[in-house]
């Protein structure tokens, strides 16, 4: 049998792979992570296979998935070259954001030093905070660009966390003199009066998420000292009545549990040199039945005022455990189903 020219395999049988070469083996080790856990994370989320060969990574998979993996790996490697580390959250952010800066609504020249090169970074005493979704990025930019901003969406989307981070950043940068964090002390099925202790002991459990956020950005001793000096205040919404909040970064968390009058009272506390952020989740109102939410009224009444920003989040922006997004989507779907059934009966 004569030996003729080799017949190439069908295109469908040609392995789809892309090879990346990295000059610094030490950085490549950090990129891969302990036991290649970073590579495993990228493989799982993008549906590719990554094989390490010396100082090279070979990516197998569909064309689009390979291209996305290449972009993520290159971005993470560039991050390592600047001296930063790569954590699970950094991988999640690169995959979610995909290097796109479109649709964030940033005006040219606004907070240029914060958004240089399309990156948004919030510097605090303990860590550098970076948004992990496009909605988070737009929200952070709104907090720096507007004196009054709303962040509305489900739990786990970083509304309060990012607001406190921006507040700490502006405080240590000398842009404000104080940080004031507040929440309505509304019970979610439990009675405040039944808790032991004095008023502070009763209120502090409701404020704990705000303490937790602060402790992520400031050393514990410094936080305690600033609270003692009243340069950081954490107080229930009712304690804001009659005050004028000047030269302060003010956050109202869980605003869906403020009544209409409480919301009006809080918004009118805004003083000279201050920034105010209102965060809330319309699906978790704990007010008594029949009492309207001040957050909903604020959206309706203030939405057309140009100097007030409204940023919205969805389950796609959840940055907690992946199951949280699935839980939120399940509840949303059930709520829509019930509304459709109610409409059909009506």
Q: Which key terms come to mind for this protein?
A:
11 helices; alpha/beta; disordered N terminus; three-stranded antiparallel sheet; 41% helix; 2 domains; six-stranded parallel sheet; 346 residues; Ribosomal Protein S8, Chain: A, domain 1; Rossmann fold
Strand content: 5-15%
Query: What percent of the residues sit in helical stretches (DSSP H or I)?
Result: 40-55%
Overall mean confidence score, pLDDT: 82
Report the major sheet.
Answer: 6 strands, parallel
CATH H level, superfamily name of the largest domain:
P-loop containing nucleotide triphosphate hydrolases
Helix segment tally = 11
Shape: globular
Mind telling me the C-alpha Rg? 24 Å
| Helix-strand pattern | EHHEEHHEEHEHEHHEEHEHEH
The total count of strands amounts to 11
| Weakly predicted, low-confidence segments | 1-5, 99-117
N-end to C-end Cα span: 82 Å
The CATH topology of the largest domain turns out to be Rossmann fold
CATH domain class name of the largest domain: Alpha Beta
- Spatial arrangement of strands, main beta sheet: 8-7-9-10-6-11
CATH architecture of the largest domain: 3-Layer(aba) Sandwich
Structural class: alpha/beta
Provide the number of structural domains.
2
């Amino acid at each position: 049998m004569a030996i003729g020219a080799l017949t190439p395999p069908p295109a469908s049988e040609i392995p789809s792979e892309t090879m990346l070469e990295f000059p610094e083996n030490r950085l490549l080790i950090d990129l891969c992570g302990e036991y290649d856990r970073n590579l495993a994370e990228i493989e799982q989320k993008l549906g590719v296979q990554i094989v390490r060969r010396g100082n090279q990574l070979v990516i197998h998979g569909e064309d689009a998935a390979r291209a996305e993996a290449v972009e993520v790996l290159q971005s993470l490697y560039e991050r390592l070259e600047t001296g930063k580390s790569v954590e699970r959250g950094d991988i999640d952010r690169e995959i979610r954001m995909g290097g796109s800066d479109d649709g964030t609504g940033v005006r040219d020249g606004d907070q240029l030093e914060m958004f240089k090169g399309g990156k948004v970074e919030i510097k605090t005493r303990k860590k550098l905070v970076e948004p992990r979704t496009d909605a988070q990025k737009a929200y952070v930019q709104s907090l720096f660009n507007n004196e009054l901003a709303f962040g509305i969406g489900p739990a786990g989307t970083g509304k309060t966390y990012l607001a406190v981070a921006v507040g700490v950043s502006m405080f240590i940068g000398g842009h404000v003199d104080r940080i004031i964090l507040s929440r309505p002390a509304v019970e979610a099925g439990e009675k405040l009066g039944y808790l032991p202790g004095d008023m502070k002991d009763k209120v502090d459990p409701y404020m704990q998420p705000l303490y937790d956020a602060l402790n992520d950005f400031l050393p514990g001793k410094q936080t305690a000292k600033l609270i003692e000096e009243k340069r950081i205040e954490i107080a229930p919404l009712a304690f804001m009545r009659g005050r004028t909040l000047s030269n302060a970064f003010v956050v109202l968390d869980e605003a869906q549990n403020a009544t209409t009058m409480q919301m009006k009272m809080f918004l009118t506390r805004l003083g000279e040199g201050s920034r105010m952020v209102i965060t809330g989740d319309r699906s978790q109102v704990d007010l008594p039945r029949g009492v309207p939410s001040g957050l909903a009224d604020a959206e309706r009444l203030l939405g057309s005022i140009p100097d007030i920003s409204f940023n919205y989040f969805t389950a796609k922006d959840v940055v907690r455990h992946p199951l949280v997004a699935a839980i939120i989507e399940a509840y949303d779907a059930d709520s829509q189903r019930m509304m459709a059934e109610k409409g059909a009966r009506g």
